[in-house]
Amino acid sequence: MDTVVDGPRYIRFRPFYGATVTLKTVAADSFKSASLKPDSSDREAAGPKPEEGALVPRILAFDVGDRRIGLAISDPLGYTAQPLFTLHRAGRRADLKSVGRVLRKHGVTEAVVGNPLYMSGDQSPQAAKAQAFAEELRAEFGITVHLWDERLTTTQAHRHLDDAGHGAMGRKGIIDQVAAVLILQSFLEARANRRGRT
Length: 198
What we know:
Layout (H helix, E strand, L loop, with lengths): L8 E5 L7 E5 L5 E3 L24 E7 L3 E7 L6 E9 L2 H15 L1 E8 L9 H17 L2 E6 L3 H11 L11 H22 L2
Parallel strand pairs: 3-6, 4-7, 7-8
Antiparallel strand pairs: 1-2, 4-5, 5-6
Helix pairs in contact: 3-4
């Protein structure tokens, strides 16, 4: 059973283009986690532009690690990324079961999985694991899964936490969530830019 061990904390940082965002994070011990893996289309077509102010299906982002997975979710209007929690991996079936609960609870129809390539653009061992996770996610739940370039995302996440005055102690509990927020915010902004050009 998933249990919340610690209450939410708030940190402020500037993710993109100077906007200050307040993140509510959940301690790392909050949830026993899910196993995810990547799917197809790296960069999907913009798709139809939603009406202004209309609610849109939620998108869930994953920063996949060997021991933990950070999750972030889009807001109901599809404009911003919000941290959700950190999943502690507990085996493939248990992980997927936990992810399935999140998908159903939030009505998620798409997922974004961070793809940690080398700086050269070549495939890294961790990228291969993320891609396998995305494929499991697609096969298990039948949702659209996007792989998204996340080079330097973890470095950026640490920098934001440093700027917010968040010490090294306890950082493991939130770093994955912040990385997932950065992945999802980048995806949402790229999609919005594509729609703006159509």
